[in-house]
């Protein structure tokens, strides 16, 4: 059969070269079906419908370490599987094969004669007779050691990722619950530093609002309004330096010092001086703590009230007059409380007539950032805002200022306390019965 | 809740005739009954369904809590019977579904007239003198096989196939879809199936019961068939000349004939 070539290429004929070429050509023909089957690079087996192995190739026998005599007619395909694999075979593989006539790429572990496990991928097809009746099942088996090792690795990685995700989610939920709990504590603590409601004062409308910048942090702003027992009323509004538990503790001390001092002698300068002494005594050396505060007394007079107040480094109160227009009530020279041994505090006084309202606030309001963070809201803008608002009742003033605070959005990053007192213009609201 | 849609209920056969309800086991879905349905449909109204999590059921109705025990599957059966108002039902359960049928009949005794338990096993794991044939380690191996073979299951295709029985063309996208199950669902069903122990429930079976077993069944060997037969008072045991765990596939005519004879529908 090589003659044609020899004739076409006479110069290469003869010698060893010719023999080598003949062998290579014969090999290329691959004309032995038996050899193709027996020594294929994959395993082959044919089983009867009841699973008995009827034929198996040498490759698969070599992988398993069985002789042909041990297997053919004696073993079933499922005998080669692990117990778990047999369960899978009965519940998935066999039904699918029966219903579809073929099934491909299923992962099994084969058990070799020596007990070792051989991960394989199995594909089966049913051979039918001319009448369509199934005759036997042909199965090819591919060595899948590397592939299965890789897949196990992927599976393991996925399980780890799922586990990590689950743990992270649990941690997140725990943190959220903890944060919620802490916020509840903070809200309770913050509330304890403010009066739950302002007392009702005949002939005077009162209103207050506390704006919390962050639910996670205790603010240091405070206010209160209380009876001095002789028809007069004491009030204060202030801001301790810093935030958090230490600031809250100082706020608490400040509040009770102011109230105790006021019962003893309500003169505003005396009250602030007493508070200064208390703070200096309590916060010494490496732990300087101070606050700004305005303290005052309201005393009924005619149709209105006399307002006397002193300020320790606090932004001035703002008066909204009955006839329109607004003005600050300056308290020049007052310094921070808790810094100097003998601080100067100055007293000032005014009369709230029907239709007049006084507004007090902490510096969160005037130091809110406006104009995309480039500028502070400032005293001038607050005065303009109040002038446009006046005349206004205490409630309307606080409502308007609260709206202003909300309007600052992210520009407001500090807590802000506001409190207003107004003598009703009509003489209807808040009048004694 | 539309139970019929949830469980992909299919009703075929003679309307108004006595009801035969066919319940698939662990692994595939109601297609397992395809070869016996034609013979049964001549005499019965045949009700087929997929358990939630299998076949084309509504996967969104699945929860691990409910389907971690066979009671959850028994509730599926009872809820289908209630919604379709099925009575005097001949319940045919394959493999684990035979025990699910035992539980369902105990829950709602009035609705079930007969039980046909196809290759049943009340407990797969060996226990003292009792030979179920398996150890816990064997079941772990099965779970490994489930993990290694998704059978064409894919998270992207699943929502299309599940709960869309009216669009069968979707299922053809997946080569092996009729046994394709969400691996998490399959794992829970495998645990519920192979770790269950219903031996104590057998004595309470109060309806005529037929047990069908195969001559060679790796999952439910004849020793187990004999146990079930002895435990259910007055039960009938028929050994089919078939191999494997699924006689409705390997010997459909004989399986259908046994059911017909038992119900008196055929000699």
UniProtKB/TrEMBL annotation, chain A:
Pfam family, one: PAS_9
Keywords, comma-separated and alphabetical: Coiled coil, Hydrolase
Keyword Lipid biosynthesis tagged: no
Signal peptide range: none
SUPFAM superfamilies: PP2C-like, PYP-like sensor domain (PAS domain)
Coiled-coil portions: 147-192
InterPro entries cross-referenced by the UniProt entry: Bact_Sigma-Reg (IPR052016), PAS (IPR000014), PAS-like_dom_sf (IPR035965), PPM-type-like_dom_sf (IPR036457), PPM-type_phosphatase-like_dom (IPR001932)
Domain PAS: 29-81
Domain of life: Bacteria
Protein name as annotated: PAS domain-containing protein
Organism: Streptosporangium pseudovulgare
Biological classification of the source: Bacteria, Bacillati, Actinomycetota, Actinomycetes, Streptosporangiales
């Amino acid at each position: 059969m090589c003659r044609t070539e020899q004739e076409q290429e006479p110069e290469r004929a003869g010698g060893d070269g010719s023999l080598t070429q003949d062998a290579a050509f014969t090999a290329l023909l691959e004309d032995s079906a038996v050899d193709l089957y027996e020594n294929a690079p994959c395993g082959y087996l044919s089983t009867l419908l009841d699973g008995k192995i009827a034929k198996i190739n040498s490759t698969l026998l070599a992988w398993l370490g069985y002789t042909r005599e041990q297997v053919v007619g004696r073993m079933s395909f499922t005998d080669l599987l692990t117990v778990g694999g047999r369960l899978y075979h009965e519940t998935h593989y066999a039904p699918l094969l029966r219903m579809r006539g073929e099934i491909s790429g299923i992962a099994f572990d084969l058990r070799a004669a020596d007990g070792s496990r051989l991960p394989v991928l199995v594909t089966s097809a049913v051979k039918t007779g001319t009448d369509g009746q199934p005759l036997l099942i042909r199965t090819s088996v591919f060595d899948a050691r590397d592939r299965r090792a890789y897949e196990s690795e992927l599976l393991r990685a996925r399980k780890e990722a799922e586990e990590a995700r689950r743990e992270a989610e649990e941690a997140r939920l725990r943190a959220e619950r903890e944060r919620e709990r802490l916020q509840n504590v903070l809200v309770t603590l913050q509330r304890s530093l403010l009066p739950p409601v302002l007392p009702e004062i005949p002939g005077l409308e009162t209103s207050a609002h506390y704006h919390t910048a962050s639910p996670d942090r205790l603010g240091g702003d405070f206010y209160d309004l209380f009876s001095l027992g002789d028809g007069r009323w004491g009030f204060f509004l202030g801001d301790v330096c810093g935030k958090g538990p230490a600031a809250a503790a100082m706020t608490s001390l400040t509040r009770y010092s102011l109230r105790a001092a006021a019962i003893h002698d309500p003169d505003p300068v005396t009250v602030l001086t007493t508070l200064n002494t208390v703070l200096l005594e309590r916060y010494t050396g490496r732990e300087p703590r101070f606050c700004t505060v305005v303290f005052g007394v309201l005393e009924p007079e005619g149709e209105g009230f006399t307002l006397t107040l002193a300020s320790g480094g606090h932004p001035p109160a703002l008066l909204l007059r009955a006839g329109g227009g607004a003005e600050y009530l300056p308290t020049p020279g007052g310094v921070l409380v808790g810094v100097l041994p003998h601080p100067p505090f100055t007293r000032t006084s005014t009369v709230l007539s029907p239709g007049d309202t006084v507004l007090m606030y902490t510096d969160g309001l005037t130091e809110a950032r406006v104009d995309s963070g480039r500028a502070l809201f400032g005293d001038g803008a607050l005065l303009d805002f109040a002038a446009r608002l006046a005349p206004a009742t205490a409630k309307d003033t606080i409502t308007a200022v609260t709206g202003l605070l909300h309007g600052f959005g992210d520009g407001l990053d500090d807590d802000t306390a506001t409190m207003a007192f107004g003598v009703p213009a009509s003489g209807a609201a808040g009048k004694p019965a | 809740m539309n139970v019929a849609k949830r469980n992909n209920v299919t009703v075929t056969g003679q309307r108004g005739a006595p009801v035969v309800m066919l319940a698939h086991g662990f692994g595939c879905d109601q297609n397992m009954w395809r070869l016996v349905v034609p013979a049964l449909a001549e005499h019965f109204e045949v009700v087929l369904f997929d358990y939630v999590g299998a076949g084309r059921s509504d996967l969104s109705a699945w929860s691990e809590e409910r389907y971690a025990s066979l009671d959850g599957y028994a509730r599926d059966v009872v809820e289908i019977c209630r919604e379709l108002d099925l009575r005097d039902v001949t319940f045919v359960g394959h493999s684990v579904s035979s025990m699910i049928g035992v539980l369902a009949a105990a829950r709602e005794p009035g609705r079930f007239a007969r039980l046909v338990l196809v290759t049943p096993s009340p407990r797969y794991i060996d226990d003292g003198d009792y030979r179920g044939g398996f150890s816990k380690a064997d079941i772990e191996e099965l779970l490994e096989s489930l993990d290694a073979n998704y059978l064409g299951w894919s998270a992207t295709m699943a929502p299309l196939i599940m709960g869309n029985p009216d669009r069968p063309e979707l299922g053809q996208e997946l080569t092996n879809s009729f046994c394709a199950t969400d691996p998490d669902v399959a794992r829970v069903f495998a645990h519920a199936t192979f770790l269950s122990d219903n031996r104590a429930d057998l004595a309470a079976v109060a309806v005529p019961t037929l047990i069908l077993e195969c001559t060679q069944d790796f999952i439910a060997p004849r020793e187990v068939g004999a146990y079930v037969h002895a435990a259910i008072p007055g039960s009938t045991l028929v050994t089919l000349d078939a191999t494997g765990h699924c006689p409705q596939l390997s010997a459909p005519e004989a399986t259908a004939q046994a059911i017909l004879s038992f119900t008196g529908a055929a000699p």
